[in-house]
Specification:
This protein is an alpha/beta fold. The protein contains 11 helices and 15 strands. The relative contact order is 0.13.
Length: 357
């Protein structure tokens, strides 16, 4: 009788163990994508990281993804489906996934979540983001050297601090080498709509912009610049395949190392709900992949400034900085703090237009 009770208890314990701790059962890792998987762009970089995770832990993990999931209720539904399918680690790389992630995580404390570009954490939710603005500043230097009209264009997704950081850093980099240059902004109020992105790019070029930058998820802006014989800054990933002559350089996001570290932490039981914000120094942001129209002197200058950022010698948001209405927001010699950068709600001098409502 006693032996039978022990056997039953052991069987129940084995059945209740997490999937990844059962013998020969791989850890199931899920990824949620806000747009389709394409050859370049935001989702492409995260898909490359997923593949890196699968390759690094082959046999120990099993990864899967769901693409083109809208932020909001759809995201919550898909997250619950992934949990039901036995995923014990789920990456949600889009700002609008933050609240659905927190909601589902609260109901499933046995699952670990990684909110990428989110900023809120919970006992089973970590947050991570990259200092995209560092790459934007560097791309602004290149744009300032390459523009002939002194008019550049910026196709922007949503008016959130991350996007404002990018516009402002680009403008500061631009005007650090070309004080007369201006930035015109078109707001999309979407992350992924190739038609709207193309229309915005065309409108900016019609207004005299000869170098374009963008914060959206497709390659439409690059293709439009290629078509018109203008120049553009690739974002998220190298886009020379789409715009071989138009690309100035690429500001790339490198997620593979972070994703592999976090997966390893779940496997070895050391996972904690960290809040990471890494940039050039940490290898999460890289600028390069120059196009054929960029002189070597410009390439060397940009790469030298990238080294300066990595070494802490250059901080993009250092005063004096004024907004585009003439108000001083940062005194000379002062460096903006992380909390100030994270709450950015203004446009710097040199940007034409206002923050979209």
């Amino acid at each position: 009788m006693y032996k039978n009770l022990v056997a039953i208890a052991l069987a129940a314990l084995t059945f209740s163990l997490p999937v990844h701790s059962q013998k020969n059962e791989p850890l199931k890792v899920g990824f949620l994508y806000v747009a389709p998987v394409t050859d370049a762009g935001w989702v492409h970089q995260h898909e490359a990281a997923r593949q890196a995770v699968q390759a690094a832990f082959d046999g120990r993990v099993k990864t899967s993804y769901v693409e083109n999931v809208a932020e909001g209720p759809d995201a919550e539904r898909v997250l619950r489906d992934l949990v039901a399918q036995g995923h014990k680690l789920i990456f949600t790389p889009s700002f609008g996934y933050m609240e659905p992630t927190l909601k589902v995580a609260k109901d499933h404390p046995e699952v670990k979540f990684e909110s990428i570009t989110g900023y809120k954490t919970a006992p089973n939710v970590a947050a991570a983001n990259a200092r995209y603005y560092e790459g934007r500043y560097l791309s602004g230097i290149a744009a300032g050297r390459m523009t002939k009209s002194n008019v550049t264009g910026y196709v922007a997704g949503f008016p959130i601090p991350e996007v404002l950081q990018g516009i402002n850093a680009f403008t500061l980099g631009l005007r650090s080498v070309n004080p007369q240059a201006q930035v015109k902004v078109v707001w999309l109020n979407t992350w992924f709509d190739p038609g709207k992105e193309r229309d915005a790019a065309m409108a900016l070029m019609d207004q005299g912009a000869d170098v374009l930058s963008f914060h959206s998820a497709s390659t439409a802006v690059m293709a439009a610049a290629q078509e018109r014989g203008k120049l553009a800054i690739a974002y998220h990933s190298d886009m020379r395949k789409v715009a071989p002559q138009a690309q100035v350089l690429a500001v790339t996001h490198q997620w593979s190392d972070y994703y592999k570290r976090r997966t390893q932490a779940v496997l070895d039981g050391s996972w904690k709900p960290v809040n990471v914000w890494g940039g050039v120094k940490e290898g999460m942001i890289r600028v390069g992949w120059f196009g054929p129209r960029v002189p070597k002197a410009v390439q060397d200058e940009v790469l030298a400034r990238q080294n300066d950022i990595a070494a802490g010698r250059l901080k993009p948001f250092t005063g004096p900085i004024a907004d585009n209405e003439g108000k001083l927001v940062l005194a000379k010699g002062q460096a903006m703090t992380d909390p100030q950068i994270l709450e950015m709600n203004f446009l710097v001098a040199g940007v034409q237009g206002k923050i979209a409502k």
